[in-house]
Specification:
oxidoreductase activity, seven-stranded parallel sheet, NAD(P)-bd_dom_sf, 336 residues, alpha/beta, 11 helices, 50% helix, SDR_fam
């Protein structure tokens, strides 16, 4: 009998390893997040009725967050600079969910106007009574070479992506510590974990967010019911490239390529909500080969440097040739 049990256990181990390998090869998120998506709590159950504040809610990931949270039954605060676009998103939320008009507050917000953040947080608490979840999603990306980029661009990236997020968080966090519960979820990036060409300033701002919130999490050990969660997506279909900084502050991106090779926004957001519902502290969300890149940086940095140099050189070459930098990873440039 003991021999049979040992045999079963020994056969079970390679089976588990095989399942994990298959999940890694065909998965689009880290194993912890994938496991939560299969065996964990559903967002529809855990997020229903919660008050969720989403910044950057006028487009891209933030817009999709609003739609999926509305379908989960969450009450929403939608923030971004463009009030007309926020009203459009609100209308879509109301049309496709059971929420009522009073369940969604449109609250225009400029992350750069840090003096207004205290007033905005007070307005939210006055309207809903409390804040369950803050999703820091606002920010801008970058597409320019370091040697060609003016210092003002780097300053703008840090002011917006890092200090703006920190400022709003500091207005919401005391409310959560007073209640003893809540979640602060911040959208970082794969370049918040590793560097990438054409994004020196953007990567620096995301690294700063990673350092800040990872440190903050350790300061909140006396508040076990406050979740600090970092979301690190790879390439996702959104308007982030359209609005990216270039080498000069007001110069638009010259070439925005096809988005079809990137992960769909809906899938990325679904995984985010699964992570939030299950208290995942850091989420890696990307299709292969980018998911391999996350694990390489975590467990085999020497290999990761080799991958970075190889892919980075190709990215810079395509950028200099006037091609879309992101699609260069997936498609072979056409030659005349």
């Amino acid at each position: 009998m003991d021999w049979c049990i040992c045999s079963l256990l020994w056969s079970f181990i390679p089976l588990c390893l095989l399942i994990h390998v298959l999940c890694f090869i065909f998965g689009d998120a880290d194993l912890t997040l994938l496991r939560a998506s299969i065996t964990g709590h559903s967002p529809e159950t855990k997020l229903k009725g919660l008050v969720v504040w989403v910044t950057g809610a006028s487009s891209g990931i933030g817009e999709e967050l609003a739609y999926q949270l509305a379908r989960c039954g969450s009450r929403l605060i939608l923030s971004a600079r463009r009030e007309d676009q926020l009203n459009r998103v609100k209308s879509q939320c109301l049309e496709n969910s059971s929420l009522k008009d009073e369940d969604i507050l449109v609250l225009p917000l400029d992350l750069l106007d840090r003096k207004s953040h205290e007033e905005k947080a007070k307005a939210v608490i006055e309207y809903f009574g409390h804040i369950d979840i803050l999703i820091n999603n606002g920010g801008r990306s970058q597409r320019s070479l370091c040697l060609e980029t003016c210092v003002e661009v780097y300053q703008a990236l840090m002011e917006l992506n890092f200090l703006g997020t920190v400022s709003l968080t500091k207005q919401v966090l005391p409310h959560m510590t007073q209640r003893g519960r809540g979640s602060i979820v911040t959208v970082s990036s794969v370049v918040g974990l590793a560097g990438a060409p054409l994004a020196t300033g953007y990567s620096a701002s995301k690294h700063a967010l990673q350092g800040f919130f990872n440190s903050l999490r350790t300061e909140l050990t006396d508040f076990p019911d406050i979740l600090i969660s970092m979301v690190c997506p790879g390439p996702v279909q959104s308007q982030i490239v359209d609005n990216a900084f270039t080498e000069e502050l007001n110069k638009p991106v010259a070439t925005v390529g096809s988005q079809e090779h990137k992960m769909t926004t809906s899938r990325c957001v679904r995984l985010m909500l699964v992570g939030i519902a299950n208290g995942v502290k850091e989420m890696w969300i990307a299709q292969q080969p980018f998911l391999l890149f996350y694990y390489a940086w975590q467990y085999a940095p020497t290999v990761a440097w080799a991958m970075t140099n190889l892919l980075g050189r190709k990215r810079v070459q395509n950028f200099k040739a006037g091609l879309d930098a992101d699609s260069a990873y997936f498609t072979k440039p056409k030659t005349s």
